[in-house]
């Protein structure tokens, strides 16, 4: 690996980690395109390191909400009155992340065996179709009961967690894609679903990346540290601005747009890279 490769992979991770296109899928496909074996121990450690950079970025973006999680209610001062208002709390987050963490831990060896380019291509297509269905259902059939993530019920966040298992068991399906779609299927708005998906990503990714780092920290040597640092910083900077832009333009960029991109990516790789 050289500096240019580290920067390219850092950019790919930063762009794709929190939008519904599958960062895992993009890393596998990009590594293949660059001629790298994505199962190589050094490459796997590098991917964990740059993923930590992306996690740090989302933590910086949501730091106020993270602090707020330690208080269940806040005061609403509208109309000059102080009224206790419902507030997302730590229990919501725990309920939302528990299904994916449990399944990910129990089935981790099986899941690792699925990290192949062919698996990812199919996941891009099926996940894209699932996102289109969720957006259609949310617009035409669902009763929106959560306009913001503070309105989410415990039942809704649990169901979002169940839908998130799809991304755990099928590399390339997309964690954010499955959780945002799941939220829209259970009556949450697009923005509420995206906000909660991003917030859930922090503990899930810290847990997953921390576990992987414990198994591969020996690959952090003086020979690799410089390139790992370049990838880490690149992923952090890119992910920070991608999340800010996504939340700013969320009403203009629909899930269907991401689904179409996933279809095109799968077709291009199938036609020109896999054959």
From TrEMBL:
| Protein name, entry field | Undecaprenyl-diphosphatase
What does the record give as the function of this protein?
Catalyzes the dephosphorylation of undecaprenyl diphosphate (UPP). Confers resistance to bacitracin.
Q: Which UniProt keywords apply?
A: Antibiotic resistance, Cell membrane, Cell shape, Cell wall biogenesis/degradation, Hydrolase, Membrane, Peptidoglycan synthesis, Transmembrane, Transmembrane helix
Q: What does the sequence similarity comment in the record state about its family?
A: Belongs to the UppP family.
Q: Which InterPro entries match?
A: UppP (IPR003824)
Annotated PANTHER family: UNDECAPRENYL-DIPHOSPHATASE
Top-level taxon: Bacteria
Q: Quick one: a GO biological-process term for this protein?
A: regulation of cell shape
Transmembrane segments in this chain: where? 48-67, 88-107, 119-137, 157-173, 226-247, 253-273
Pfam annotation, one family: BacA
Q: Which reaction does it catalyse?
A: di-trans,octa-cis-undecaprenyl diphosphate + H2O = di-trans,octa-cis-undecaprenyl phosphate + phosphate + H(+)
Q: Name one GO cellular component term.
A: plasma membrane
Q: Where in the cell is it found?
A: Cell membrane
Task: Give the record's membrane topology.
Answer: Multi-pass membrane protein
Something else the entry says is:
Bacitracin is thought to be involved in the inhibition of peptidoglycan synthesis by sequestering undecaprenyl diphosphate, thereby reducing the pool of lipid carrier available.
Q: Which GO terms describe its molecular function?
A: undecaprenyl-diphosphatase activity
Listed NCBIfam families: PRK00281.1-4, undec_PP_bacA
């Amino acid at each position: 690996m050289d500096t240019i490769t580290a920067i390219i992979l850092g950019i790919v991770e930063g762009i794709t980690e929190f939008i519904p296109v599958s960062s895992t899928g993009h890393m596998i496909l990009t590594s293949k395109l660059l001629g790298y074996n994505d199962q190589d121990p050094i490459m796997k450690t590098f991917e964990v390191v740059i993923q930590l950079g992306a996690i740090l970025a989302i933590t910086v973006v949501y730091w106020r909400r993270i602090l707020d999680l330690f208080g269940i209610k806040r005061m609403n001062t509208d109309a000059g009155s102080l009224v206790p208002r419902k507030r997302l709390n730590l229990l919501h987050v725990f309920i939302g992340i528990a299904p994916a963490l449990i399944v990910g831990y129990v089935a981790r060896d099986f899941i690792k065996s699925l990290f192949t380019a062919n698996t990812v291509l199919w996941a891009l297509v099926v996940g894209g179709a699932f996102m289109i269905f969720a957006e259609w259902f949310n617009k035409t059939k669902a009763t929106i009961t959560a306009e913001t993530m503070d309105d989410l019920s415990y039942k809704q966040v649990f169901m979002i967690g169940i839908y998130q298992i799809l991304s755990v068991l099928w590399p390339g399906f997309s964690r954010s894609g499955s959780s945002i779609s799941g939220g829209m299927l259970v009556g949450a708005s697009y923005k509420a679903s995206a906000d909660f998906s991003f917030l859930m990503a922090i503990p899930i990714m810290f847990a997953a990346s921390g576990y992987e780092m414990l198994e591969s920290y020996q690959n952090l040597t003086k020979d690799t540290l410089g390139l790992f640092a370049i990838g880490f910083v690149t992923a952090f900077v890119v992910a920070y601005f991608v999340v800010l832009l996504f939340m700013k333009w969320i009403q203009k960029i629909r899930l269907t747009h991401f689904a179409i991109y996933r279809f095109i990516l799968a077709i291009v790789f199938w036609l020109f890279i896999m054959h």
